[in-house]
Design a protein that fits this description.
The relative contact order is 0.09. This protein is mainly alpha-helical. The protein folds into three domains: 1-75 and 244-329, HUPs (Rossmann fold, 3-Layer(aba) Sandwich); 89-243, HUPs (Rossmann fold), CATH 3.40.50; 385-470, Arc Repressor Mutant, subunit A. The chain contains 21 helices and eleven strands. The protein binds glutamic acid (GLU). Glutamic acid binds at residues 11-13, 45, 201, 213, 215, 219.
């Protein structure tokens, strides 16, 4: 017995940058293929000539790779079912239009947009749902030729079989039924010769051997059309699963502020691919384990049975949580690169590991690392408001004692603190907080023992003296 290799795909239209929503679709398909030992294919759906742009194709290939979503078949990788951009598949589509036309399952339509609009209006006025009135389905051969001779550019319409019920089992949403009479003959080739989405998408899935399609719920209503087309062409249909959309915290559509962000923007802000993977894989999909999962574990634990039907709510706090986890785990070289130029300017390569060990628990983004660089190594320190308040409350005498204790014990925090305790009679937070505020200007932050160790003695003294003045 031979079993068909599982093959999933991501089929973006290059009309913009990848956003969290379509990246999640790509991820689920990639995880499914990996989970079931199959292949993940990438296809570029660039039939919209006006809106598709080569730079968006470039960008999406780069973004997917950055995220670690490698495709085994598709642009730049090749494969046996190319080309993988729909704009290069016109000859293939022509063959399938031909088959439908010769079987009487498609016909040229000469109706103008104005005529179609008028007909829709009349149907609505008669309280009927607007459907193509099949005007051109009834044209004789002679009438067709006459129109073609006049130079009219027809669309090609699929003749939807009447009185059929289309049924399919959606992997996510369960059994689905559609009445073919509700569909109306639809365009499969536009007047400019380019294929309509339903057609190219369905034909390509079949020809490329796609077995499973996870895609946005907004495509659910297209599925019945696609199944009818595939049936008419005698092509196999994939199994479909329609993913619940991602919504904002208030249940409404995602706004820019609430996660409608491109992968480029997230990457520029310093988000790490592993953080996004851990977050997105859980957005509308449940894992048995809540903790951090490596890419292979994300795939191993993925199941279409764990995809939710309810809209998935974007939650920035969750995303930030996974970002912190990713920072905690990242290896030193990558973390160092990621921290960026401001950090590299102020921290020597020899000081790198200590700096990282000191600030890692307190950073989520390169901007945080830059912040702590300035706090720890900046020539002049302007304490935060809370920092100033703590320094003032401790008073000058405290810092005179601190200077003396530091002179005696240096950066060894334990003896320094013991000494300071004896000198001031203070302990715990009353002792640590003013020290922290004087040294870093902040009332929270990296471990004090590391901070004091990392700072040049001259800087420690300088800052304690400044606190004497301010206190
Ligand atoms: N190009 C379509 C889109 O980006 C693909 C839909 C599908 O996955 O079938 O929405």
């Amino acid at each position: 017995m031979t079993t068909k290799t599982v093959k999933t795909r991501f089929a973006p239209s290059p009309t913009g940058y990848l956003h969290l929503g379509n990246v999640r679709t790509a991820l689920f398909n990639a995880l499914l293929a990996r989970r079931w030992g199959g292949l993940f294919l990438l296809r570029i759906e660039d039939t919209d000539r006006e809106r598709s742009r080569p730079e968006y194709v470039e960008a999406l290939l780069e973004d997917l790779r950055w995220l670690g979503l490698e495709w085994q078949e598709g642009p730049e990788v090749g494969g046996a079912h190319g080309p993988y951009a729909q704009s290069e598949r016109a000859a293939i589509y022509a063959d399938y239009y031909q088959r439908l036309e010769s079987a009487g399952q498609a016909y040229p339509c000469f109706c103008t947009p104005a005529e179609l609009a008028l007909s829709r209006k009349a149907q609505r006025a008669a309280s009927r749902p607007p459907r193509y009135a099949r005007t051109c389905a009834r044209l004789s051969e002679a009438q067709r030729s006459e129109r073609l001779e006049r130079g009219l550019q027809p669309t090609l319409r699929f003749r939807v079989p009447l009185q059929r019920t289309v049924e399919f089992a959606d992997r996510v949403r369960g059994p689905q039924r559609f009445a073919s009479d509700d569909i109306g003959d639809f365009v499969i080739r536009r007047a400019d010769g380019t294929p309509q989405f339903f057609f190219a998408n369905a034909v390509d899935d079949a020809l490329m051997g796609i077995t499973h399609v996870l895609r946005g719920e907004d495509h659910l209503a297209n599925t019945s059309r696609q199944l009818l087309l595939l049936e008419a062409l005698g092509l196999p249909a994939p199994e479909y699963g329609h993913l619940a959309l991602i919504v904002g915290a208030d249940g409404g559509p995602l706004s820019k502020r609430e996660g409608d962000l491109s992968l480029r923007e997230l990457r520029a802000a310093g988000y790490l691919p592993e953080a996004l993977l851990n977050y997105l894989a859980r957005l509308g999909h449940v894992y048995e384990r809540d903790e951090w999962l490596e890419p292979a574990e994300l795939a191993a634990g993925f199941s279409p049975d764990h995809l939710g039907r309810a809209p998935a709510r974007y939650d920035e706090a969750q995303l930030l949580h996974w970002q912190s986890e990713a920072v905690r785990r990242m290896d030193l070289d990558r973390l160092w690169d990621w921290m960026g130029a401001v950090v590299h300017e102020h921290v020597s390569p020899e000081g790198r590991d200590d700096f990282i060990a000191t600030v890692r628990p307190n950073i989520r983004f390169p901007a945080d690392a830059a912040f702590w660089v300035e706090r720890l190594f900046g020539a002049e320190l302007t304490p935060s408001e809370e920092g100033r308040a703590v320094i003032a409350a401790a008073g000058s005498v405290f810092f005179v004692h601190a200077l003396a204790a530091y002179a005696q014990h240096g950066a060894a925090l334990q003896p320094l603190v013991e000494d300071l305790k004896r000198r001031t009679g203070l302990k715990g937070k009353h002792l640590f907080m003013p020290l922290r505020a004087a040294l870093t200007g902040e009332t929270h932050g990296p471990e004090l023992a590391r901070v004091i160790d990392l700072m040049a003695p001259e800087r420690v003294r300088h800052r304690l003296r400044a606190a004497v003045q301010a206190g």
